Amino acid sequence: MTVNEQILDYPIPSDSALEPPPEWAELRGACPVASVRLPSGDRATLLTRYADVKQVLADPRFTRLLNAPDAARLSAEGGGVFNSEMAQIVPDGGEGHQHWRRLVGRWFTAKRMSALRPAMTEIAERLVDDMVERGAPGDLRADLGFPLPVYVICDMLGVPAADRDRFAYWSDTLLNLTRYGKAETDAAQAEFVDYMSGHVAAKRAAPGEDLLSELIAVGGPEGGGLSDVQIMVTGMGLLVAGHETTANMIGKMVSMLLADRSRWERLLAEPSLVRTAVEESLRLDANAGFGLPRYLSEEIEVSGTVLPRGTTVICSMAAANRDESAFAAAAEMDLGRSPNPHLAFGSGAHSCLGQALARTELQVVLEVLLRRLPSLELAVPVEELERVEGLAVGGLRAVPVRW
Questions:
Q1: CA pair distance 59, 53, nearest whole angstrom
Q2: What pLDDT band is residue 240 in, cutting at 50, 70 and 90?
Q3: For the packed helices 261-269 and 274-284, what is the interaxial angle rounded to 10 degrees?
Q4: C-alpha span between 276 and 1 (Å, rounded)
Q5: Bridge partners of 293?
Q6: pLDDT of 254-266, one tens digit each?
Q7: Is 84 a residue whose pLDDT tops 60?
Q8: Three-class SS of residue 306?
Q9: In CATH, which of 1.20.120.450, 3.40.50.2300, 3.90.226.10, 1.10.630.10 is domain 3-402?
Q10: Residues sharing a CB contact under 8 Å with residue 222, sequence separation 6 or more, in sequence order
């Protein structure tokens, strides 16, 4: 049976930790607007071509109103980062959303990231020191990939990094697809809300040099600022996005570069390629997670297919990033690829707010590893790397390395 004659379960499983499922290429070629079954059992429409995904992400008629009565539930348990009421507290579109992005985006400019770079480098150096002291083999995900973005985002939000294990658990429950039951996710999210609302109240009483204190200082909605609930949800969102996705990407990027030793050797010989190597790792990430769901507020046509109002669309940026019509030799890793207009951070008005932060962290980690551990290699065959399962974000369970 061909892909356009069947309804695939989504996310589509892959036998390999670093390679995409073969169905991606089949769908792009034969069935770019495909019907899929989500973990909840609900139906959605999957897009895998570059042009279609980019079109949908830029079109305001595709909204984030995934708690609409006829929107598909991603998880059988409901809730989660996409379907929850919490996702609607920050304005979804229009001037309200742009205003929110302007207020929060001041903290994520390329200029501000350059200023943070020395501190990030220092953290990375310290984590590598600790890893070397413990001796090989180490787990790059646990020893470097996970702690570095957590330290950075905690510092930006003014929350104690000592609470990072709790943040990791709360983040995972918000990103749940099939790992946790409803009672557990509800309880964890209530704890997270309680923690963050207490933190916002503490910042109001005693402001610091951090993003949340600055948002409070702008004043409430009547003064052009955000409400306390919006500030709390912003803090939660940034904490989840700011560590979970980048932590996973560090492990995947290094694994991709070490899976073929010639890639690592080339970077050692040409460290100036670090920036483009990071972009190519983002483009080629075959384990990016769920993709971006959108809810259709009116009937629209995509790739010759009419989608009725109420359709839930899943944009697979990772599949789109391997589209031969958008990238020459799309399945190949070209460390010097430029330009590289990949969709790893989305596109349009809702593109990832923290992309300058993620890029800077990935570049810093790669620079430090190339300098400090030039003999770095995977400590297991690439076939033994295991994917994180049951969450909306893709990652590797561990990245065993030696040097």
A1: 10
A2: confident
A3: 150
A4: 40
A5: 314
A6: 999 999 999 999 9
A7: no
A8: strand
A9: 1.10.630.10
A10: none
